């Protein structure tokens, strides 16, 4: 979605900061993240574990407990409403109905002692005040839409009677139940097998397009991003390091971390017995390096990178990069 | 090349019991009738989705699980025919690296205790020798002597996996089973650990069995591989041959399901429909027939033979091998359509 186009903005987040005080010192999980999501688009938030991507999504849902978390943000607007001013009761009205979430592990996010049908019924009864029968009819329809065979019978199953892929589908049905404006999917397919992952992704994409929902896809998997997203934010150690439309990101990544991440994903076409690696490890959230957080692992790092944190600078149309020496720009090659 | 590990018609079945322990409800056929050989010095891949029996098969190889039927030969000797002492001695030469570096290291042991434990069990008691050996091992896996007295909680996932590797090679094994060694790790650490494994293999002349569900990793790591589905081998042999010409529909589906990270305009997601069926009392025919896009009527009842179609390339599929000459159901070579494939009908 280009800027200047008259597209409705669903989510606007400015300068989100989340800090967790611990015995070992302050953990700066998120350091000034901006996020924009427009109508009907799929935005991916990519990063490795500990980069703050899940904390960001939970802060948007206002699901982070404070204390312990210390949360600051300048703007959190959802569908034109200021969520920072909402009470918990108002948030409960919004959550599930207009702003839904899909978690990674379907087994732990479903109630094990309730049938899946009853759990989806709850959505309709809570948000629309439907009767038991009316809710169940809608539930069966929702399960059918999501591609569950024999939806009527399946609705009476308990989570443990379903396979992993089936459970994830139940979560999808639940998320799409009230046709929300925005769905946040936190690693929706990470726990699944490859063939099941493909099924669930295809269903998710079909539902998202069919319902006109916006999707924030939180993931570490760039191959999922390549298939699903319209725009991508790459996060590293609590900061956005690159923001770009998906095609531009994959054809011409600018930040050395993005380049390294892409090279590190093995492909079927690669040569044998050699893996491209990013040296070093993700910095500890308590002791982040000086200057650019990526400089200890970056082969292009200079003295300036060690001293100064680069800013997120615009770089072409709808792209931003946090790097003093972006790759693939002005004749420099990214290889 | 000689085979270091040979499995002959190995089956591993686990009983499923009812509410009274002596009422046997059925059997989980985790591994059924698997024969394969791992050659000395190679990396042998074991591929399949969760529940297909690849971990059980690996546990059987190192003697952690006793097969219900069949033989496990390590360097030509039947593991389970050995007397107890000999069995223990033999098992030292085979070690395992586990998937989850968080639960496979005792949090109350420091690195020195973790890595030296196998030596202690072997009967080594000289602290100085052990310490020197542990430091040597740590340096081999990219850690240092400074880490000796730190605890697992001080390390990241990748570093913990390095500790697990140091522990596995501490008794100079020749045969190492790596059970999904990188699937719990971050993408950027992934490659580091795989490179380390390759480097150690060359340096210490190791043979690996590399278990993974990630086909791209398997393709890059392995010399030979076996594809498993619901306890049976679907396809096995030379890795280059299988990737160049996958013959079994399941192998083809697995390769197609690998999402490439190249961006393409059409962004097609290839889908293999259906779920893995339960391994409790599986059907008599081909185990893949319910999900197979090319299933024929005969596939449901006639089990396919596991045959060599070209040198070092085995497949179990009627499409490739043809049906055997026995009494076949009517229309056995007709494709199945629509509701015929719905399970339980």
Structure, described:
- The complex is a heterodimer of chains A (335) and B (345).
- Chain A has twelve helices and 13 strands.
- By secondary structure, chain A is α/β, with parallel strands linked by helices.
- Chain A has an eight-stranded mixed sheet, with helices on both faces.
- The C terminus of chain A is likely disordered.
- Chain B is α/β, with parallel strands linked by helices.
- Chain B has two domains: 179 residues, Rossmann fold (3-Layer(aba) Sandwich); 63 residues, no CATH class.
- Helix content of chain B is 28%, strand content 23%.
- Chain B contains ten helices and twelve strands.
- The mean pLDDT of chain B is 88.
- Chains A and B meet through helix 7, helix 8, helix 9, helix 10 and helix 11 of A and helix 5, helix 6, helix 7 and helix 9 of B.
CATH class of the largest domain in chain B: Alpha Beta
- The end-to-end span of chain A amounts to 28 Å
Please estimate the helix content of chain B.
25-40%
Q: Give the CA-CA distance, first to last residue of chain B.
A: 48 Å
Spell out the CATH superfamily of the domain at 9-229 in chain A: P-loop containing nucleotide triphosphate hydrolases
Our Rg estimate of chain A from Cα atoms comes to: 21 Å
Largest beta sheet of chain A, briefly?
8 strands, mixed
Write down the CATH topology of the largest domain in chain B: Rossmann fold
Count of helical regions of chain A: 12
Q: Could you list the spans of chain B in which at least 5 consecutive residues all have pLDDT below 50?
A: none
The assigned structural class of chain B equals: alpha/beta
CATH architecture of the domain at 9-229 in chain A: 3-Layer(aba) Sandwich
């Amino acid at each position: 979605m280009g800027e200047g186009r008259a597209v409705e903005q669903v989510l606007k987040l400015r300068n989100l900061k989340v800090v967790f005080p611990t015995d070992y010192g302050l953990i700066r999980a998120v350091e000034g993240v901006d996020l924009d999501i427009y109508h009907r688009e799929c935005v991916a938030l990519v990063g490795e574990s500990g980069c703050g991507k899940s904390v960001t999504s939970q802060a948007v849902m206002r699901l982070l407990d404070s204390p312990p978390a210390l949360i600051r943000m300048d703007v959190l607007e959802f569908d034109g409403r200021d969520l920072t001013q909402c009470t918990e009761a108002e948030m409960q009205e919004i959550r599930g109905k207009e702003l839904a979430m899909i978690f990674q592990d379907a087994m732990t996010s479903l109630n094990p002692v309730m049938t899946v049908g009853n759990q989806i019924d709850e959505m309709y009864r809570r948000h629309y005040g439907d009767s038991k029968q009316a809710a169940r009819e809608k539930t069966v329809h929702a399960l059918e839409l999501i591609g569950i065979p024999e939806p009527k019978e399946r609705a009476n199953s308990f989570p443990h009677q379903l396979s992993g892929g089936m459970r994830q589908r139940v979560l999808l049905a639940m998320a799409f139940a009230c046709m929300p404006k925005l769905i946040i999917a936190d690693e929706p397919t990470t726990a699944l097998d490859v063939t099941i992952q493909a099924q669930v992704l295809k269903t998710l994409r079909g539902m998202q397009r069919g319902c006109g929902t916006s999707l924030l896809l939180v993931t570490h998997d760039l191959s999922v991003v390549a298939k699903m997203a319209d725009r991508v934010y790459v996060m590293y150690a609590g900061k956005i390091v690159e923001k770009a439309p998906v095609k531009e990101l994959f054809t011409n990544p600018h930040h050395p971390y993005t380049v390294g991440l892409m090279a590190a994903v093995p492909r079927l076409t690669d040569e044998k017995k050699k893996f491209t690696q990013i040296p070093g490890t993700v910095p500890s959230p308590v002791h982040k390096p000086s200057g650019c957080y990526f400089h200890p692992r970056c082969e292009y790092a200079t003295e300036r990178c060690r001293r100064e944190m680069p800013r997120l600078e615009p770089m072409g149309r709808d792209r931003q990069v946090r790097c003093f020496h972006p790759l693939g720009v002005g004749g420099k090659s990214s290889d | 090349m000689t085979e270091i590990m040979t499995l002959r018609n190995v089956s591993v079945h686990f009983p499923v019991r009812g509410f009274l322990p002596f009422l046997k409800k059925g059997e989980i056929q985790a591994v059924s009738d698997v024969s394969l050989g791992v050659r000395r010095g190679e990396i042998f891949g074991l591929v399949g989705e969760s529940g297909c029996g690849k971990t059980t098969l690996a546990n059987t190889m190192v003697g952690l699980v006793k097969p219900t039927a069949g033989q496990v030969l390590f360097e030509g000797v039947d593991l389970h025919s050995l007397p107890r002492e000999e069995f223990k001695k033999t098992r030292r030469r085979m070690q395992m690296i586990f998937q989850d570096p968080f639960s496979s290291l005792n949090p109350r042991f420091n690195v020195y205790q973790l890595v030296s434990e196998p030596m202690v069990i072997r009967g080594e008691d000289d602290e100085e020798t052990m310490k020197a050996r542990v430091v040597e091992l740590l340096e081999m896996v990219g850690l240092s002597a400074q880490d000796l007295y730190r605890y697992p909680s001080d390390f990241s996932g990748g570093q913990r996996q390095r500790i697990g590797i140091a522990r596995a090679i501490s008794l100079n094994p020749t045969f190492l089973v790596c059970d999904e060694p990188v699937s719990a790790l971050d993408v950027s650490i992934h490659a580091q650990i795989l490179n380390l494994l390759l480097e150690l293999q060359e340096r210490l002349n190791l043979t690996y069995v590399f278990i993974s569900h990630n086909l791209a990793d398997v393709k890059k790591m392995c010399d030979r591989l076996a594809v498993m589905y619901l306890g049976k081998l679907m396809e096995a042999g030379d890795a280059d041959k299988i990737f160049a010409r996958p013959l079994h529909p399941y192998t083809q589906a697995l390769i197609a399901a690998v999402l490439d990270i190249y961006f393409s305009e059409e962004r097609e997601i290839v889908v293999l429909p259906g779920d893995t069926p339960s391994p409790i009392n599986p059907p008599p025919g081909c185990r893949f027939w319910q999900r197979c896009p090319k299933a024929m009527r005969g596939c449901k009842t006639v089990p396919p033979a596991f045959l060599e179609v070209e040198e070092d390339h085995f497949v179990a599929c009627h499409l490739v091998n043809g049906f055997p000459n026995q009494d076949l159901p009517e229309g056995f070579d007709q494709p199945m359509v629509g509701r015929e494939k719905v399970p339980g009908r």
